[in-house]
Amino acid sequence: FFKLDFTIPRLLFKLYSKIEMLKSLAAFHDLEVDDTYLRMLITGNVRHIDEKHEILARYSKCIDLLENRHYQTFDEDLFAELYTLLSDNYELISLYRTANDSDPKNKVVIDRIYTSAPSHLLSGMMNSLIFYVQNGNGSLLSKAATVLYYINYAKPFVKYNEEMAILLAKYVLATNGLESLAYYLNIEDLFA
Q1: Chain Cα centroid distance, residue 60
Q2: C-alpha to C-alpha distance for 94 and 13, rounded to whole angstroms
Q3: What does residue 102 show for φ and ψ, rounded to 5 degrees?
Q4: How do strand 113-114 and strand 109-110 relate by DSSP bridges?
Q5: Residue-wise pLDDT tens digits, 77-90
């Protein structure tokens, strides 16, 4: 008998899944892209990446990083490594926002409910999230959903909170049973 080689179908699945994820992310950022451009971006065949498309290239690199570092602990070191790559800021002074969010759509207070957490509460809130993911009794899906909701609600980072929420939720799914498949689920479509 012969042994079936699933290397090529697996690579094609990853490529086309990543194209769909990046299309959703592009829609979130109101960017016009096509499948051919995204395929070239993913495979490193774009000579010059337009500044507004940099987020797509960096996000793709974050997915690759997570897939290759699935053993890393869910903690602030992981957050910093992802955020540094995503924001292209390798000289982080502070991981979390040090000032209250100034974006009007995030700063609104509706019936005393903030749409982003006050900056002085962020460290404690994120430590609580880390503790829950590492030690909580919740199911795989409840932990991933909590990460997605919590980061998107608290908005602990200066920018790219939605992207960080998705990346970290995928990480929780991957490290708790779904393995690398989790990185290719199009959770990005929730924000498109």
Answers
A1: 10
A2: 37
A3: -100, -5
A4: antiparallel
A5: 999 999 999 999 98
